[in-house]
Amino acid sequence: MPSVIDERQAERLQYIDLCAYVLGAVNRNVLMNRFEIKQVLATRDISAYQEMSGENLTYDLALKCYRPSKNFVPRFIHNIDDAIQLLCDGTVTIDCEPRFVGNASTYRLPRITLSITTLYPAFQALSLSREVVISYMSVKNGPSTRTIAPHSLFRTGTFVYLRAFDHKSGEFRSFKLNRIIHCELLPTTPAIDQRKEYDDEWQRQVTLVIKVNEGVEHPESIAYDYNMENGELRVKVKKALVMFCLMDWNVAPLNFKGLPGILFPLKLVEVIE
């Protein structure tokens, strides 16, 4: 029994470390909700983490939570996917014993690896509603340094993006995490008109009318794939995410005729505002 208890506490200590590292804050309620434990046990876990980490955390009286200290160093190795899942879904994956999944044959296509040590200040900025300076590699403008105020994180099939107000352009834009090569958390908070509720394209939804592209030998197969009705599919999506939806589903955009059906089995025929 002691070994089981130690193992469970180690999982909670790792979670404290992850929350402080990625969210920039952790408290007893976070542990109590995540692990369904009593307050006294959550207090004991935070004390154990402090003793183990050498004062990695400082208590913020105003926010009533523990914040990473200036000399914070993560005490566990964290997976970038866990960090993104925590930010997007508020959950962390638990690995099952091999015998539970040993009968299934699976394969995951290779994904581009992200660096949590590079991105954690941006994650903290998102969690704490702060601004962050990033060094960014843009396809159009090349490398640049800019201050952004992130308000959302979204995932496509291949990449992960930050939606943020960009001070350089004065607009809300989407930034691919893979292109952030350095970032630094700032103590400043975004102005009111730089927050999510003022991101018009994020707040507005449009309807994409999608049909099977020309050149597909058996269009009924594609229509069945996507459960189309009367030969078309209608998808509601945030206006800011239209381009990403088209790329993720391999949909030929408007005014791009002649794209091969083998690569673009679908085509966009209308965007309803």
UniProtKB/TrEMBL annotation:
<feature type="domain" description="WYL">
    <location>
        <begin position="123"/>
        <end position="183"/>
    </location>
</feature>
<dbReference type="Pfam" id="PF26107">
    <property type="entry name" value="BrxR_CTD"/>
</dbReference>
<dbReference type="InterPro" id="IPR026881">
    <property type="entry name" value="WYL_dom"/>
</dbReference>
<dbReference type="Pfam" id="PF26109">
    <property type="entry name" value="WHD_BrxR"/>
</dbReference>
<protein>
    <recommendedName>
        <fullName>WYL domain-containing protein</fullName>
    </recommendedName>
</protein>
<feature type="domain" description="DNA-binding transcriptional repressor CapW winged helix-turn-helix">
    <location>
        <begin position="10"/>
        <end position="79"/>
    </location>
</feature>
<dbReference type="Pfam" id="PF13280">
    <property type="entry name" value="WYL"/>
</dbReference>
<dbReference type="InterPro" id="IPR059020">
    <property type="entry name" value="CapW_CTD"/>
</dbReference>
<dbReference type="InterPro" id="IPR059019">
    <property type="entry name" value="WHD_CapW"/>
</dbReference>
<feature type="domain" description="DNA-binding transcriptional repressor CapW C-terminal dimerisation">
    <location>
        <begin position="205"/>
        <end position="253"/>
    </location>
</feature>
